[in-house]
């Protein structure tokens, strides 16, 4: 049968019609990434004029508070709504119980005060967990066997939470995975009059090898050694359990929930968002960043993977994304117009 035959077969539908031109691709695009979706994690150092590269996270630096303020000016300029602070605790401030975590003059607390004073419009998220402060690198207080004790740890996390709120943190983000910590934190915040301090719960946080570069960045890798966090972070094989975690954190008073890592766990993002329909955040973690950066540096992948990976989070249902690419993505979005 020839092509111009009147009996020629036509496809029933031609989905390529709408893909033909940029204008129609734009009109039918279902999910969009915007700068409003981005949160930039930053590593904070002691001292002044201190800037350190992180070998496993090319392009990301640890910064002292004075340089962090310069960075924050850039973030505000780019329109990035919030930062997440991760202090790099000097070795001599680490202890078995991680008491530095609730020192009102600790690095996270000072960085929070400095940021809120200089840029009140920039949201400040602080990490609630003990791992940057413990000599053993675990997120909580351990017994003689090295097992992380839940309820004693919560008492420490509550003190840490209050010190962050007092320093002016807008959002406290427990990343420790203790049972019942959100409820305890919420109660303590209410009692202390911090009724508007938001809780972003790392609800479905998996025991993941993708956190390796982060542990280098905050300097907890050496403390943790060969131990892992499998007795409190989630098993990568589980899905239903993530929903259970989210349900508990919401009932205890979380304002937002988070899934972490990101790209390998998009199914969890989708299921959490479609089940609960609450603000659902996702963390594109250090290992995901390292993989992308390595491939881009080698010319194996083009920089276009950055916005593609972030758009995938939106498609899965994420409302906001913690990403080391926040600045790069904001710039790329600006260029795209
Ligand atoms: C600490 C914490 C971790 C991350 C955020 N908060 C590491 C861990 O649980 O070991 C990981 C972030 C990343 O990999 O980018 N509680």
TrEMBL record:
GO terms for molecular function: porphobilinogen synthase activity; zinc ion binding. The keyword Lyase applies. Mg(2+) binds at residue 245. Its EC number is 4.2.1.24. One of its GO terms (cellular component) is cytosol. Pathway: Porphyrin-containing compound metabolism; protoporphyrin-IX biosynthesis; coproporphyrinogen-III from 5-aminolevulinate: step 1/4. It holds the Pfam family ALAD. InterPro entries: ALAD, ALAD_AS, Aldolase_TIM. It catalyses: 2 5-aminolevulinate = porphobilinogen + 2 H2O + H(+). The active site is at 205 (schiff-base intermediate with substrate), 260 (schiff-base intermediate with substrate). It is an enzyme of class 4 (lyase). Keywords: Heme biosynthesis, Lyase, Magnesium, Metal-binding, Porphyrin biosynthesis. GO terms for biological process: heme biosynthetic process. Homooctamer. PANTHER family: DELTA-AMINOLEVULINIC ACID DEHYDRATASE. Belongs to the ALAD family. This is Delta-aminolevulinic acid dehydratase. The gene is hemB.
